[in-house]
Amino acid sequence: MHNKEFFLHLVKFVIIGASNTVISYIVFFILYNILLAGDAFRSQCFSYSAGIIWSFIWNKRWTFSEKPNRWASFAPFLILQLMLLLMSAFALDIAKGNLDWNINLIWVCVMTVSTIINFAITKYLVFRA
Fold first, then answer.
1. Distance between CA 75 and CA 123 in Å, rounded?
2. Are 10 and 26 in contact (CB under 8 A)?
3. How far is CA 79 from the centre of its chain?
4. Disulfide: which of 11, 46, 59, 122 matches 63 by Cβ 3.0-4.6 Å?
5. What span, in angstroms and rounded, lies between the C-alpha atoms of 56 and 79?
6. pTM
């Protein structure tokens, strides 16, 4: 039963993550290409923040089925997300400056690593599911 529950959490996390990725990428794309003129760091900060709000609400309610009135998990979730935000923004900025890759490929690589770390810590430390 434990493996079934883990798999269910993982599938739900991936679904929320996929929707979060779409939202974050659209925000990143608009900011990076239009509003912030190639500023990868600030574009990532704003786009990741939009994703933080989306993923907290849906992972809390649906993925890990935490009681709606329990907000004790918000502070650790926010701290984790802010750490991942800084990590991903710096990684994106460093990779952009040192690799001759398309910014979209760099973004996908950075966000893949960030997502793996995010799932493990969210499941076992934030929502303790």
1. 15
2. no
3. 12
4. 59
5. 12
6. 0.70
120: Cα within 13 Å, side-chain hemisphere: 6
What are the start-end ranges of the H helices in the chain? 2-30, 40-58, 74-98, 103-121
List the structure tokens of 15.
């679904």
Cα 25 to Cα 22: distance, rounded to the nearest angstrom: 5
Query: Nearest-CA neighbor of 77 among 129, 41, 40?
Result: 129
The tokens for 115 are: 């997502």
* Structure tokens, 121: 């810590």
Chain position carrying tokens 């779409």: 22
pLDDT digits (tens, 9 = 90+) for 32-89: 999 998 898 899 889 988 988 898 889 888 888 776 666 778 889 889 989 998 898 8
Terminal C-alpha separation, the chain:
13
What whole-number distance in Å separates Cα of residue 16 and Cα of residue 20?
6
- Gyration radius of the chain over CA positions: 15
